[in-house]
Every structure is written in structure tokens, then in C-alpha cells.
Amino acid sequence: MTLKVLMIGAGGIGAYYAARLAKAGHSVVLTARGAHLTALQSAGLRVDYEGEKLDCRLPAVDHAALVQDYQADDFDLVAVALKSTATGPVMAELGDWLRAGSVPVLSLQNGVDNEPMIGDVVGEDRVLGGLAVRIGGHIIGPGKVFAEGVAQIVMGAWPKAGGPDDSRLPLLDRLESAFNEAGIPTTVTDNIRYELWRKLVINNGVNPLSALTGLDTRSLTHHPEFGRIVYGMMAETVEASKADGVNLSQQDLDEMFELISNFNAIKTSMLVDKEKGRPLELDSIAGAVLRRCEQLGS
Length: 298
Prior knowledge:
Strands 1, 2, 3, 4, 5, 6, 7, 8, 9 and 10 form a 10-stranded mixed β-sheet that branches. The radius of gyration is 18 Å and the shape is globular. By secondary structure, the protein is of the alpha/beta class. It is built from 12 helices and 10 strands. Helices cover 48% and strands 20% of the residues.
């Protein structure tokens, strides 16, 4: 069955997944702004995924046109692929529009604080937590996106399923099947907070340091000094998870360090943002860890 998906944010991550879904026959609407939006509307979306060209013409709108031309329940899913710095402002901007419907909202963002912000607007029973795993991607020009990596998705009911009658569960099963058939390796977990924290371990380990040094992930993790700093920052994140009752372990730490050490040598999103003069996701990544360490007195 065809999905109707709204992708809020047509950057490197959102545009790649949108293109994959569209190529598989699903109906996808993108939101964007500025020159990127103009290019999407006039020439369509072009995604370069490791040498594979994914070209598609998709409806693309800004948020004002979205509210004017669509209702939230025109969609089976609203996916948010914005920088985490934009979550609060966009939820404020689209809050009334979202609350007028009942469509579930999936976050595909960095950090562990996006889902609570979305839940404050639409209610926890409409929130799906999610993370993009082993994917790098960014806009390389108006209407043009580069992406690389395995590009998996892990998703689940946030903060957890409310029992076998939870209305999100049938949708999650449907999304898992549709995404996998579209070439997006996808799994559904019953503990999405655990998975979000495991990704934050990686993000806090490499993102800030890459922005400071200008180095890619492989250069950082294999450097004799920076590698130790990355591991230490990842260890701090494991400690901070206890404040949320997630309780990551030494095994989680070692697995995440091995994963990022053996992943493609990519520029982190924070390094790309710094190079382009955009706001950094420092507060949602390092700040989230620091706040919880303060709670724990560590």
C-alpha cells in the first residue's frame, strides 16, 4: 500500500530517504526554503548516492504553503529531518496545524531531546522516535544532495509502546515493510530511547571534535591522541545516559567506538555546518550530555 509521507526538511538525510521512497512509488511532499526550495520546485531533486543518481520531481513547499494547501491528516506520516536546533521553532510554527490532525510524527534527528519537544506539541501517543544510522549527507547545491553510507533507519514508539493496543504499532509494521522494500534498511525496536542514546554516544564523540579540528571521522578515531579524546567523550555520554534511566554499558561504548572507527571517512554534520557558517547542534549533542552529567553530579 502506498504511503503518503511529509518530509519536513529536505537536507542531506531527509532528501535521500524521500528520494528512495518516491522511487518506490510512495507519495512524498518535501518542505524546504530559499534557493533550495526554488530549485526543488523548478528542476526537481537530484540525489547522488555513492555514484547512483536518484532524480525525482516531488511537491516542495515552505511551511506557509504547507499550512495553506494541506491538512496534517492528508499524510500517513510526518517525518522530521531538520537540524535539532530547528525542532522547537518548527513545532511552535506548525503546532496548531499538527494538533488539528492525528498523524504520527517521526523524528529522524540527532540528539535525545527532539521527541520530548514533539510530544509536548502533539502528545506522546503520536510520537515515533527514530535515527538515521551510518549515513552521511548534505546539500551540495540548490536542489542537489550528496549522501553515502548504509543509510539504515531504526524507529519505535516513543518513549515506549503503550501495550499491544498502541495505535502506532500497526503503522510501525507498515513503515518497516515499506521502507525496506524501498531500499532503506529499517528495523523497529521496542526500546527506541536506548537506540537514540547509542547514537548520541557516537555524535558526542566525533561531532564537536571534528568541527574543531576539521578532520573526518576516520582521521579522528585513528589518530593516537584524538582517538583517545573521542573515546573519552563517548564514555561521558554513556555515563550521562543513566540520568534518563537508559544505563548504557561498557559494551555499548566499545561497540559504538568500533562502529564509527570502521565507518566511511565522512565529514560530520557539525563540521559541514561550521564550514557553511550555519548554527551548530552543540546544545542538542554536547549540551544534552552536559545537562545530564550535572543532574548526576558527575
